Every structure is written in structure tokens, then in C-alpha cells.
Write the C-alpha cells for this entry.
Amino acid sequence: MGEQRLGDIIDDYCVKCRRITNHSIVSLINSEAAKVRCRTCYHDHDYRHEQAPPSKKELKKAEAEAAMAAGNGSASAANPALKAKADTSGENA
Ligand SMILES: [Zn+2]
């Protein structure tokens, strides 16, 4: 049914046109579009399933959120335990 062929015209996001445009399939993997060519500017790129890449603004926001999630409460408890362990080897006999 949904099998794609080389040369088929499909919608995809073109980073050069910065919008969804018609693309023709130029390469297939497992009968799915792998590479496509924009019919407007003839730019070849990987098929991106009509997803626009995240903008720089969105990337920054995601980064900040990840940093906040990672920074909460994991850095303080490690040192005292390490020191106690190092002192209990039996070097004095
Ligand atoms: Zn284009």
C-alpha cells in the first residue's frame, strides 16, 4: 500500500526553503525514503519526516532544562565516604 518508489513526490521540510515543499525520493532504505531532493531548490538531504529541525532558541531552552534537571542534588555526598575508606587499610603492624 504505502510503498515508496524512487522518484515519488512526497512532502518534506526543506532547510533551504525553510518550509514544507515537494520532494522527490532519490534514495530508499527498506522501501522508505532515505534521501530526498527538494523540487523547489534541488537541495538533497536526508528525509526528515516533515519535521523542521529545532531552532537555536529551542535547543538552548532544552539545554537549560536538562542542566536544571541534572544539577539538583547529586554533587555533595561523595567526598566524606571516599576519605573514610582510604584510612582503613592496615599499614601499621
Ligand atoms: Zn528547498
Residues 56-92 form one domain. The mean pLDDT is 84. Residues 14, 16-17, 21, 38, 40-41, 43 surround zinc ion (CB under 6 Å).
